[in-house]
Design a protein that fits this description.
The complex is a heterotrimer. By secondary structure, chain A is α/β, with parallel strands linked by helices. Chain A has helices spanning 44-51, 72-79, 97-104, 113-122, 136-148, 166-183, 194-200, 218-224, 264-273, 286-305, and strands at residues 4-15, 18-29, 33-38, 59-64, 67-68, 82-85, 154-158, 186-191, 203-208, 211-217, 226-232, 246-252, 255-260, 277-283. Helices cover 35% and strands 30% of the residues of chain A. The longest helix of chain A is centred in the C-terminal third of the chain and has 20 residues, at 286-305. Chain A is elongated and about 75 Å long. Chain A starts with a strand and ends in a 5-residue tail after the last helix. Helices cover 74% and strands 0% of the residues of chain C. Chain C contains 4 helices and no strands. The radius of gyration of chain C is 18 Å and the shape is elongated. Classes of the chains: A alpha/beta, B mainly alpha, C mainly alpha. Chains in contact: A-B, A-C. Chain A binds chain B through residues 33, 170, 173-174, 177-178, 180-182, 195, 198-202, 219, 222-223, 227, 278, 280, 282-288, and chain B through 6, 8-14, 39-40, 43-44, 46-52, 55, 109.
């Protein structure tokens, strides 16, 4: 039985009648680096706020460290084990870098002074500077320092590299990877930067329109997905029905491109049986997987809206 | 050994790492007894998930390319050197074959199909010879 | 700690409180000289009402802090550094209580 550090079950939440989460199911294994992907407005921040107990869902359940997020009595003990970076990276405008560290430190008995010193230097944060005088990138880094230095078992980061230049992004991601390797810290971070997620995450979850449309081990998903290319010598005649696993079929001239999510052997067999074609198989990038799921989800929604059953 | 940054090509990163190590052994960049950097170091330098590196190292150990000595690290194994020499030979043979076939102007697919069918025949030929001998 | 944060936050509120207290004192003094209640012990009454008003004032100011965080978006719900504060392992009640007493201490 895998140990899930975060678990949600049919999480539902609406704001003023507008649905933000529509039955979200999420499982984050302990020790993993989990990339939470989605378009802007898909529900990433709403999910994160719910996990942190900052929002109350309309229905469904969420558990962090096995504790219900609505459990007020145990919420403090849970929060002591979590490092959190908010979406807006807002901190107290009347404090300096030094002051906020001094303020946060005593709240966490497992504070890591070594990490605090390391990141102050690495992120080049001037201790006496007032927070509003820091650039957005510096504020992000400061928030990260506060989150990591508290010796947390779980980091929940809402777009941690937002606003950072490529070099700073690299620095931050490297530290996260190192933390995972040396301390075994679980990381749950949301992003719409697929390139950074692709390499550092071992698990991903794609959220679209408030629902989880794909979730699992990244390597396993990339092994399952294939792009098949059929090149027709003559006219294009496709079989009307395909085995389970075909996500999309697109034609351009004499080339037909098929995105397969699983069951590739059966589909290749069917493709090879089509007369007058050559079949080639290509690996699929995370970007393709993401775009396909997001697009098809939107198409499905539109279909439902116009009265067609999908 | 300096690993190259992974490509966002769809090929799983751990496979890319395995290929890099094997290629390094073939070209002689890595020799028998050479030590590879720790998983943590590789993950940090390339900024990739440590499990990915761990998986690549495990696979390479399974294939006999690496020897994981508990506590000391990952070392290129004896057999890897031998295999690499054989593979280098094979590479140059195939390279010259491709050059000679260039005049036929085959597509890549046709070339692959020819190779696969010849390979399949080569595997079954000894069997047929054995049957013929038995009958004679 | 929280006291530290409370102190940093209340430095300006301290001034406001002193002004309000001063204003109250002046008003009361003027009223007292104008119409002395028969048999009352002015000092004791003054002390009691002053404390009551002060506590009410502090609690109000303590609570006001959470909503006075600067926000430049007309967003629904929580915004600004409030999210960060609420994500800390401190109970809401304690935050309020410490802020209130920090205000009192500052004054």
């Amino acid at each position: 039985m895998t140990d899930f550090i975060i678990e949600t079950n049919q999480l539902t939440k609406s704001f003023k009648g507008q649905p933000a989460l529509r039955g979200l199911n999420l499982r984050v294994p302990r020790g993993s680096i989990f990339g939470f992907l989605g378009r802007n407005g898909a529900g990433k921040t709403t999910t994160i706020k719910t996990l942190m107990g900052l929002l109350r869902s309309d229905s469904g359940a969420a558990r962090v460290f096995g504790v219900q997020v609505t459990d007020a009595d145990r919420s403090i003990e849970v929060r002591r084990r979590i490092g959190f970076v908010t979406e807006d990276k807002e901190l107290y405008p009347y404090m300096t870098v030094e002051q906020i560290i001094r303020f946060i430190r005593p709240l966490f008995p497992r504070w890591r002074h070594d990490l605090e010193r390391r990141y102050l230097q690495m992120f080049d944060l001037p201790p006496k500077r007032k927070i509003p005088d820091l650039s957005k990138g510096m504020r992000s880094k400061l928030m990260l320092l506060l989150a990591i230095s508290r010796g947390a078992e779980l980091l929940i980061l809402d777009e941690p590299t937002d606003g950072l230049d490529p070099a700073a992004t690299e620095d931050v991601l490297r530290e996260l990877v190192d933390m995972s390797a040396s301390e075994g810290t679980t990381m749950f971070f949301s992003s719409h930067q697929l390139s950074e997620v692709e390499f550092i995450a071992d698990h991903i979850g794609i959220i679209d329109l408030g629902k989880m449309v794909a979730c699992g081990v990244l390597d396993e998903m990339k092994a399952r997905y294939h792009r098949l290319q059929l090149v027709f010598e003559g006219s294009v005649e496709l079989p009307p029905r395909w085995p389970d696993g075909v996500e999309s079929v697109r034609q351009e001239g004499r080339v037909v491109s098929i995105l397969v999510s699983h069951n590739v052997e059966a589909i290749v067999e069917q493709a090879r049986s089509v007369p007058g074609t050559s079949v080639e198989s290509f690996p699929v990038t995370l970007r393709e997987i993401f775009l396909e799921h997001v697009r098809s989800n939107r198409d499905a929604l539109v279909q439902r809206m116009v009265g067609n059953e999908v | 050994m300096i690993f190259r940054p992974p490509q966002s090509s769809g090929v799983p990163v751990y496979l890319q790492l395995i290929e890099q190590v094997k290629h390094a052994v073939e070209t002689g960049a890595l020799r028998v007894g050479d030590q590879l950097p720790t998983i943590r170091k590789v993950a940090g330098e390339l900024v990739i998930n440590p499990n990915t590196v761990a998986r690549a190292y495990r696979e390479l150990e399974h294939e006999g390319v690496l020897e994981l000595r508990h506590g000391s690290g990952a070392f290129i194994k004896e057999s890897a050197g031998g295999r690499a020499r054989i593979l280098r030979n094979a590479h140059s043979l195939v390279r010259s074959a491709i050059e000679r076939l260039a005049s036929l102007d085959l597509t890549d697919d046709e070339l692959r199909r020819v190779l696969e069918s010849e390979l399949a025949q080569a595997r079954t030929a000894p069997l047929q010879q054995g049957v013929a001998k038995g009958k004679a | 700690m929280l006291w530290y944060k409370g102190w940093l936050e209340t430095k300006f509120k301290l001034l406001l409180m002193l002004v309000c207290m001063g204003f109250y004192l002046i008003v009361f003094y003027l009223m007292r000289t104008a119409a002395a209640p028969p048999g009352a012990r002015p000092a004791a009454v003054f002390g009691l009402t002053a404390t009551t008003l002060a506590t009410l004032l502090y609690t109000w100011l303590a609570g006001a802090g959470i909503n006075s965080q600067p926000s430049f978006q007309a967003t629904q719900g929580l915004h600004g550094s409030t999210l960060f504060t609420l994500s800390l392992p401190v109970s809401r009640l304690r935050l309020l209580a410490v802020r209130a007493s920090a205000d009192q201490r500052a004054a």
